[in-house]
Structures are given as structure tokens and as C-alpha cells.
Specification:
Length: about 150
């Protein structure tokens, strides 16, 4: 990253820190991109504001109940000698994480982007009613494995 890009990144809010992640019910307003999290009886719906970010620059992952959205938004640099008076639109790479209490698999998660809004739908799996593990009598093959030879 050249000095000019570093300066633009710092002035735009330091969004090049790819390790930035928040996990929990709420997050400070300084994290980007901002998100809304909704829950219905059948799914979680997460919407991220990602204006100016193309679908090819977004990555969505879901594993172990953690939804991770990462990507990059590139700032258009002006010609040499141009002076900036304000840089309020963040640019650079970003990463947001949201913990969701569901055991969905990545194949079940749907993501789409339209008009600068990334929408991620994470379905809920039905709760299992059986909390007990059935204990079976020892199988003959297992008994043979335990005998010393």
C-alpha cells in the first residue's frame, strides 16, 4: 500500500483493518458496515449497508453459528495535486462478524446484494426434542477390540 493510499485509509476511518470483528447483540456505531439483525420464527435476516461495494468484492461465510461478512470498498483517488477538504466515506477492506444461535450449514445460507444493501438469510433449524443419548448394550465387535491379544 503506498503512502497516499495509507493516508486516505486513515482519513476515511482506518477500515483497512481486516481483523476488525464484533460479536454480540450490539456493536459500537463506529464499526463498518452498519448492520440490522432481525429474527423470525424460521430465520435470521441480517442486512448490511455496503454502498459502492460490488458483489464480486463481498465474501459471506457461516460456520459454527458465526456469520462473517468481509469485502472491500475502493475510494476513487483524485488527480495528483488535488486537495481533500473532507473524507467521510470509509474505504478499504472490512470484516464484520455476528454470532447467531442456530446450527444452520453454509449451504443453507442465502446472500444477495441490491441497491447497496447486502441481505443474508440464515434459516433456523428445528430444535431437537431429544436431549438424551441412547445407551446400547456392547456390540460383540467392540468387545473383541477391547480384549488384549
Amino acid at each position: 500500500m503506498d503512502k497516499r493510499t495509507q493516508l486516505l485509509t486513515v482519513l476515511a476511518g482506518g477500515m483497512s483493518e481486516s481483523a476488525r470483528a464484533d460479536v454480540g447483540p450490539s456493536a459500537p456505531s463506529s464499526l463498518w458496515p452498519p448492520l440490522d439483525l432481525f429474527e423470525s420464527w424460521r430465520a435470521f435476516l441480517v442486512r448490511f449497508d455496503v454502498p459502492g461495494v460490488k458483489a464480486r468484492d463481498l465474501e459471506v461465510a457461516f460456520m459454527g453459528g458465526l456469520l462473517v461478512v468481509s469485502g472491500a470498498r475502493y475510494l476513487a483517488a483524485g488527480p495528483d495535486g488535488e486537495r481533500f477538504h473532507r473524507l467521510e466515506r470509509p474505504g478499504g477492506s472490512f470484516r464484520r462478524s455476528v454470532a447467531l444461535p442456530t446450527a444452520a450449514t453454509p449451504e443453507m445460507v442465502e446472500a444477495s446484494v441490491e441497491d447497496g444493501v447486502l441481505t443474508v438469510l440464515v434459516p433456523k433449524l428445528p430444535a431437537t426434542t431429544q436431549n438424551r443419548v441412547t445407551v446400547h448394550p456392547m456390540h460383540l465387535g467392540v468387545a473383541r477390540l477391547r480384549q488384549p491379544s
